[in-house]
Design goal:
Rossmann fold; 6-stranded parallel β-sheet; 18% strand
Length: 335
Protein backbone atom coordinates (compact mmCIF):
# COMPACT_ATOMS: atom_id res chain seq x y z
CA UNK A 1 0.00 0.00 0.00
CA UNK A 2 1.34 3.41 -0.98
CA UNK A 3 0.82 5.76 1.96
CA UNK A 4 2.76 8.71 0.52
CA UNK A 5 0.68 11.91 0.49
CA UNK A 6 0.87 13.59 -2.89
CA UNK A 7 1.93 17.21 -3.54
CA UNK A 8 3.27 17.90 -0.05
CA UNK A 9 5.22 21.15 0.21
CA UNK A 10 5.12 21.83 3.95
CA UNK A 11 5.19 19.38 6.86
CA UNK A 12 4.63 20.19 10.54
CA UNK A 13 5.98 17.91 13.28
CA UNK A 14 4.75 18.65 16.81
CA UNK A 15 7.36 17.92 19.51
CA UNK A 16 7.37 20.67 22.14
CA UNK A 17 9.58 18.90 24.66
CA UNK A 18 12.95 18.76 26.40
CA UNK A 19 16.30 17.84 24.82
CA UNK A 20 16.23 14.09 25.33
CA UNK A 21 12.66 13.82 24.06
CA UNK A 22 13.51 15.82 20.95
CA UNK A 23 16.40 13.51 20.08
CA UNK A 24 14.14 10.46 20.15
CA UNK A 25 12.13 11.66 17.12
CA UNK A 26 15.15 12.30 14.87
CA UNK A 27 15.13 8.90 13.08
CA UNK A 28 11.45 9.44 12.24
CA UNK A 29 12.05 12.98 10.98
CA UNK A 30 15.00 11.76 8.92
CA UNK A 31 12.64 9.19 7.39
CA UNK A 32 10.19 11.98 6.53
CA UNK A 33 12.99 13.92 4.88
CA UNK A 34 13.83 10.96 2.65
CA UNK A 35 10.19 10.29 1.78
CA UNK A 36 9.43 13.96 1.06
CA UNK A 37 12.76 15.43 -0.13
CA UNK A 38 11.24 18.60 -1.59
CA UNK A 39 9.06 19.46 1.40
CA UNK A 40 9.93 21.98 4.10
CA UNK A 41 9.81 20.39 7.57
CA UNK A 42 8.85 22.67 10.44
CA UNK A 43 9.23 21.59 14.05
CA UNK A 44 6.47 22.99 16.25
CA UNK A 45 8.36 23.10 19.50
CA UNK A 46 9.84 25.20 22.28
CA UNK A 47 11.88 28.40 22.35
CA UNK A 48 15.14 26.63 23.31
CA UNK A 49 14.95 24.51 20.15
CA UNK A 50 15.26 27.58 17.89
CA UNK A 51 18.95 28.37 18.59
CA UNK A 52 19.79 24.68 19.03
CA UNK A 53 18.59 23.69 15.56
CA UNK A 54 19.28 26.94 13.68
CA UNK A 55 21.97 26.25 11.08
CA UNK A 56 22.45 22.68 12.30
CA UNK A 57 22.60 20.10 9.49
CA UNK A 58 19.66 17.75 9.79
CA UNK A 59 16.11 17.08 8.68
CA UNK A 60 14.46 20.10 10.35
CA UNK A 61 14.30 23.26 8.24
CA UNK A 62 12.92 25.62 10.87
CA UNK A 63 11.42 25.75 14.35
CA UNK A 64 8.26 27.59 15.35
CA UNK A 65 7.71 27.80 19.12
CA UNK A 66 4.14 27.06 20.19
CA UNK A 67 2.38 27.88 23.49
CA UNK A 68 1.81 25.15 26.06
CA UNK A 69 -1.15 23.05 24.92
CA UNK A 70 -2.34 22.71 28.51
CA UNK A 71 -3.15 26.43 28.31
CA UNK A 72 -4.75 26.49 24.86
CA UNK A 73 -5.66 23.78 22.36
CA UNK A 74 -5.91 26.34 19.56
CA UNK A 75 -2.83 26.77 17.38
CA UNK A 76 -1.68 30.33 16.66
CA UNK A 77 -3.73 31.76 13.77
CA UNK A 78 -0.63 32.25 11.60
CA UNK A 79 -0.08 28.46 11.57
CA UNK A 80 -3.61 27.50 10.51
CA UNK A 81 -3.77 26.35 6.89
CA UNK A 82 0.01 26.60 6.50
CA UNK A 83 0.81 22.87 6.25
CA UNK A 84 -0.11 20.05 3.91
CA UNK A 85 0.84 17.36 6.40
CA UNK A 86 0.87 17.58 10.20
CA UNK A 87 2.27 14.88 12.46
CA UNK A 88 1.69 14.55 16.20
CA UNK A 89 4.81 13.17 17.94
CA UNK A 90 4.21 14.87 21.27
CA UNK A 91 2.71 12.08 23.36
CA UNK A 92 -0.62 10.34 23.78
CA UNK A 93 -2.53 13.17 22.11
CA UNK A 94 -4.70 14.15 25.09
CA UNK A 95 -4.05 17.82 24.28
CA UNK A 96 -1.87 17.54 21.18
CA UNK A 97 -4.36 15.90 18.80
CA UNK A 98 -6.82 18.76 19.14
CA UNK A 99 -3.95 21.18 18.48
CA UNK A 100 -2.85 19.27 15.36
CA UNK A 101 -6.38 18.99 14.05
CA UNK A 102 -6.72 22.74 14.49
CA UNK A 103 -3.82 23.34 12.08
CA UNK A 104 -6.11 22.54 9.15
CA UNK A 105 -3.59 20.35 7.32
CA UNK A 106 -4.76 18.22 4.39
CA UNK A 107 -3.65 15.08 6.25
CA UNK A 108 -2.96 14.58 9.95
CA UNK A 109 -1.20 11.60 11.49
CA UNK A 110 0.16 10.63 14.86
CA UNK A 111 -0.39 8.94 18.18
CA UNK A 112 -3.73 8.50 19.86
CA UNK A 113 -4.41 7.57 23.46
CA UNK A 114 -7.76 6.44 24.80
CA UNK A 115 -9.14 9.94 25.45
CA UNK A 116 -7.56 11.76 22.50
CA UNK A 117 -9.22 13.11 19.38
CA UNK A 118 -8.81 10.93 16.29
CA UNK A 119 -6.47 12.01 13.49
CA UNK A 120 -6.77 11.08 9.82
CA UNK A 121 -4.18 8.36 10.36
CA UNK A 122 -3.12 7.19 13.79
CA UNK A 123 -1.48 4.44 15.80
CA UNK A 124 -2.48 3.66 19.38
CA UNK A 125 -0.37 5.10 22.16
CA UNK A 126 0.54 2.34 24.60
CA UNK A 127 2.69 2.93 27.70
CA UNK A 128 5.50 0.41 27.11
CA UNK A 129 6.93 0.91 23.64
CA UNK A 130 10.29 2.38 22.72
CA UNK A 131 9.74 6.01 21.84
CA UNK A 132 11.92 5.99 18.70
CA UNK A 133 10.08 2.95 17.31
CA UNK A 134 6.79 4.59 18.24
CA UNK A 135 7.66 7.66 16.17
CA UNK A 136 8.89 5.56 13.27
CA UNK A 137 5.42 3.97 13.24
CA UNK A 138 3.95 7.46 12.98
CA UNK A 139 6.26 8.28 10.07
CA UNK A 140 5.17 5.01 8.48
CA UNK A 141 1.57 6.23 8.43
CA UNK A 142 2.57 8.67 5.68
CA UNK A 143 4.85 6.30 3.79
CA UNK A 144 8.20 7.10 5.45
CA UNK A 145 10.52 4.36 6.70
CA UNK A 146 14.05 3.92 7.98
CA UNK A 147 16.43 1.20 9.06
CA UNK A 148 18.28 3.68 11.30
CA UNK A 149 17.00 3.48 14.85
CA UNK A 150 19.62 5.42 16.81
CA UNK A 151 19.35 9.23 16.72
CA UNK A 152 22.23 11.09 15.05
CA UNK A 153 23.08 14.76 15.47
CA UNK A 154 25.79 16.84 13.83
CA UNK A 155 28.08 18.98 15.99
CA UNK A 156 28.87 22.32 14.33
CA UNK A 157 31.85 24.66 14.25
CA UNK A 158 29.93 27.05 16.47
CA UNK A 159 29.48 24.27 19.05
CA UNK A 160 33.23 23.59 19.10
CA UNK A 161 34.00 27.31 19.28
CA UNK A 162 31.72 27.66 22.30
CA UNK A 163 33.40 24.71 24.00
CA UNK A 164 36.88 26.18 23.45
CA UNK A 165 35.83 29.61 24.71
CA UNK A 166 34.36 28.18 27.92
CA UNK A 167 36.70 25.31 28.83
CA UNK A 168 39.83 25.90 26.76
CA UNK A 169 42.16 22.96 26.16
CA UNK A 170 40.75 19.71 27.49
CA UNK A 171 42.93 16.88 28.83
CA UNK A 172 43.53 13.79 26.73
CA UNK A 173 41.62 10.66 27.70
CA UNK A 174 38.70 12.64 29.10
CA UNK A 175 35.48 10.90 30.13
CA UNK A 176 32.26 12.48 31.39
CA UNK A 177 29.68 11.61 34.01
CA UNK A 178 26.23 13.16 34.15
CA UNK A 179 24.68 12.38 37.56
CA UNK A 180 21.55 14.47 37.10
CA UNK A 181 18.02 13.75 35.99
CA UNK A 182 14.60 15.26 36.46
CA UNK A 183 13.37 12.57 38.87
CA UNK A 184 15.37 11.68 42.00
CA UNK A 185 13.97 8.14 41.84
CA UNK A 186 15.67 7.65 38.46
CA UNK A 187 19.08 8.96 39.57
CA UNK A 188 21.96 6.66 40.46
CA UNK A 189 23.57 7.77 43.74
CA UNK A 190 26.32 10.39 43.52
CA UNK A 191 28.81 8.18 45.34
CA UNK A 192 28.29 5.43 42.75
CA UNK A 193 29.15 7.79 39.89
CA UNK A 194 32.30 8.83 41.74
CA UNK A 195 33.33 5.25 42.47
CA UNK A 196 32.81 4.12 38.86
CA UNK A 197 34.75 7.09 37.48
CA UNK A 198 37.61 6.63 39.94
CA UNK A 199 38.04 3.01 38.85
CA UNK A 200 38.70 4.15 35.28
CA UNK A 201 41.61 6.41 36.27
CA UNK A 202 40.79 9.07 33.69
CA UNK A 203 40.28 12.84 33.90
CA UNK A 204 36.53 13.38 34.37
CA UNK A 205 34.12 16.14 33.36
CA UNK A 206 31.07 16.20 35.64
CA UNK A 207 28.18 17.82 33.78
CA UNK A 208 24.86 19.25 34.88
CA UNK A 209 22.46 22.16 34.61
CA UNK A 210 22.28 25.14 36.92
CA UNK A 211 19.54 23.42 38.91
CA UNK A 212 21.93 20.48 39.49
CA UNK A 213 24.86 22.53 40.82
CA UNK A 214 24.86 20.98 44.30
CA UNK A 215 24.77 17.45 42.85
CA UNK A 216 27.58 18.15 40.35
CA UNK A 217 29.78 19.70 43.02
CA UNK A 218 29.11 16.74 45.34
CA UNK A 219 30.21 14.25 42.68
CA UNK A 220 33.18 16.36 41.54
CA UNK A 221 34.45 16.61 45.13
CA UNK A 222 34.68 12.82 45.25
CA UNK A 223 36.66 12.45 41.99
CA UNK A 224 40.30 13.50 41.73
CA UNK A 225 41.18 15.48 38.55
CA UNK A 226 37.52 16.25 37.87
CA UNK A 227 36.22 19.24 35.92
CA UNK A 228 32.76 20.43 37.03
CA UNK A 229 30.75 21.85 34.13
CA UNK A 230 27.55 23.38 35.49
CA UNK A 231 25.22 25.38 33.25
CA UNK A 232 28.19 26.80 31.37
CA UNK A 233 27.37 25.37 27.93
CA UNK A 234 24.39 25.42 25.62
CA UNK A 235 23.05 22.11 24.36
CA UNK A 236 25.30 22.47 21.32
CA UNK A 237 28.34 23.24 23.44
CA UNK A 238 27.57 20.25 25.63
CA UNK A 239 27.39 18.07 22.52
CA UNK A 240 30.85 19.32 21.54
CA UNK A 241 32.16 18.46 25.01
CA UNK A 242 30.81 14.94 24.75
CA UNK A 243 32.52 14.42 21.39
CA UNK A 244 35.78 15.20 23.18
CA UNK A 245 35.10 12.40 25.68
CA UNK A 246 35.98 8.75 25.20
CA UNK A 247 32.87 7.59 27.08
CA UNK A 248 29.95 9.19 28.94
CA UNK A 249 28.37 7.61 32.03
CA UNK A 250 24.90 8.89 32.86
CA UNK A 251 21.42 8.22 34.10
CA UNK A 252 18.57 7.91 31.60
CA UNK A 253 18.64 11.57 30.59
CA UNK A 254 18.80 14.03 27.74
CA UNK A 255 22.58 14.39 28.06
CA UNK A 256 23.09 10.61 27.68
CA UNK A 257 21.00 10.66 24.52
CA UNK A 258 22.87 13.75 23.34
CA UNK A 259 26.24 12.05 23.82
CA UNK A 260 25.00 8.96 21.98
CA UNK A 261 23.63 11.08 19.12
CA UNK A 262 27.09 12.60 18.57
CA UNK A 263 28.63 9.12 18.31
CA UNK A 264 30.26 9.01 21.75
CA UNK A 265 30.00 5.62 23.54
CA UNK A 266 27.77 5.68 26.61
CA UNK A 267 27.02 3.66 29.71
CA UNK A 268 23.54 4.35 31.09
CA UNK A 269 21.95 3.36 34.38
CA UNK A 270 18.22 2.61 33.94
CA UNK A 271 15.18 1.61 35.85
CA UNK A 272 13.82 -1.42 33.97
CA UNK A 273 10.62 0.21 32.72
CA UNK A 274 12.45 3.26 31.40
CA UNK A 275 14.85 1.08 29.43
CA UNK A 276 11.89 -0.25 27.44
CA UNK A 277 10.79 3.25 26.47
CA UNK A 278 14.02 5.16 25.98
CA UNK A 279 17.11 2.97 26.26
CA UNK A 280 19.68 2.58 23.50
CA UNK A 281 18.57 0.17 20.81
CA UNK A 282 22.07 -0.99 19.88
CA UNK A 283 24.90 -2.33 22.03
CA UNK A 284 28.16 -1.90 20.10
CA UNK A 285 28.67 1.60 21.53
CA UNK A 286 26.01 1.86 24.24
CA UNK A 287 25.64 -0.28 27.36
CA UNK A 288 22.64 -0.06 29.69
CA UNK A 289 22.85 -1.30 33.26
CA UNK A 290 19.42 -2.20 34.57
CA UNK A 291 17.80 -1.86 37.98
CA UNK A 292 15.06 -4.42 38.52
CA UNK A 293 13.67 -2.68 41.60
CA UNK A 294 9.88 -2.77 41.30
CA UNK A 295 8.79 -1.30 44.63
CA UNK A 296 9.70 1.92 46.42
CA UNK A 297 12.71 1.31 48.71
CA UNK A 298 11.07 3.53 51.34
CA UNK A 299 7.44 2.41 51.46
CA UNK A 300 7.16 -0.60 49.16
CA UNK A 301 4.75 1.29 46.91
CA UNK A 302 3.95 0.47 43.30
CA UNK A 303 6.28 0.84 40.33
CA UNK A 304 7.31 4.19 38.93
CA UNK A 305 4.84 4.11 36.06
CA UNK A 306 1.97 2.35 37.83
CA UNK A 307 -1.20 4.04 39.16
CA UNK A 308 -0.84 4.81 42.82
CA UNK A 309 2.95 4.90 42.71
CA UNK A 310 4.56 6.93 45.47
CA UNK A 311 6.72 10.04 45.17
CA UNK A 312 9.43 9.33 47.74
CA UNK A 313 12.61 11.05 46.40
CA UNK A 314 14.89 8.05 46.81
CA UNK A 315 16.87 6.26 44.12
CA UNK A 316 15.39 3.11 42.65
CA UNK A 317 18.76 2.32 41.01
CA UNK A 318 20.90 1.30 43.98
CA UNK A 319 20.99 -2.37 42.96
CA UNK A 320 23.28 -1.41 40.04
CA UNK A 321 26.88 -1.65 41.25
CA UNK A 322 29.70 0.74 40.45
CA UNK A 323 31.93 -2.17 39.50
CA UNK A 324 29.48 -3.29 36.81
CA UNK A 325 29.25 0.22 35.36
CA UNK A 326 33.03 0.64 35.39
CA UNK A 327 33.48 -2.74 33.72
CA UNK A 328 31.17 -1.79 30.85
CA UNK A 329 32.86 1.60 30.45
CA UNK A 330 36.29 -0.04 30.44
CA UNK A 331 35.17 -2.47 27.77
CA UNK A 332 34.01 0.42 25.57
CA UNK A 333 37.25 2.33 26.19
CA UNK A 334 39.29 -0.65 25.06
CA UNK A 335 37.13 -1.71 22.13
Amino acid sequence: MNLIVESVERIAVLRATALGDLLLILPAVEALRRAYPAARITLLGKEWQVPFLRGRPGPVDDVVPVPPMEESLDPPPELVGRFDLALQMNGDGHHANAFVNGLGARVTAGLRGDDAQPLDRWVPYVPYQHETLRFLEVAGLVGASSDDVEPRMRVTRDDYAELRSVLGQLPRGLIAVHPGGRDARRRWPAACFAEAAARLGRPVAVTGGDHERDLVEKVAALIPRSIPVVGALSAGGLAALYTACDVVIANDSGPRRLAAATGTPTVGVYWCGDLINAGPLTRSHHRPLISWTTQCPTCGGAGLREPGGCDHPVSWLTDVGADAVAAQADELLNA
